[in-house]
Amino acid sequence: MDITIHNTFLPQTDPDAALAFYRDVLGFELRMDVGYEGMRWLTVGPPNQPGTSVVLHPPAADPGITDDERRTILELIAKGTYGALTLATPDLDGVFDRLQASGAEVLQEPTDQPYGIRDCAFRDPSGNVIRINQAS
Is 84:38 a contact under the CB 8 Å cutoff? Predict the structure, then answer.
């Protein structure tokens, strides 16, 4: 079987802040910026991986979601328990320093985990947890 990851979806509550974080801080390229009825979907991805993208979407855009469900989703996003993304880099310390200097909210400094990886963690502007692993 030959399967690749094409898109993954992460909610964003402020498209301009999300774009600044993923493009300007993480170095992803903007591939699509689609607006519809006052909402924006941003597709970003690493420049050296044109076949893999992250779609930053407006939360609870589904018309079948109730106002109570929408509030719950926004609360979960703000807590960092709704969406998450794990990235990898050969230069964990350098990426950590760059993210910290950008003002991104640090959740965990680079740490050797008991399960065999070294990683760090941040929140993106919407509250999503972004973990970054040391690539081997």
Answer: no
Tokens (6 digits) for 96: 């950590």
Reported pTM: 0.90
In order, the DSSP letters of 45-59 are: E-TT-TT-EEEEE-T
Model confidence at 136, in pLDDT bands (50, 70, 90)?
Answer: confident
- Alpha helical stretches, state H, 31-88: 67-79
Rounded CA-CA distance 91/88 in Å is: 9
Asked whether the beta carbons of 44 and 23 are under 8 A apart, the reply is yes
Cβ(107)–Cβ(123) below 8 Å: yes
The overall average pLDDT reported for the chain is 93
Give the pLDDT mean for 94-120. 96
| Burial class of 12 by CB neighbour count within 10 A (0 to 12, 13 to 18, 19+) | buried
Distance between CA 75 and CA 77 in Å, rounded? Answer: 5
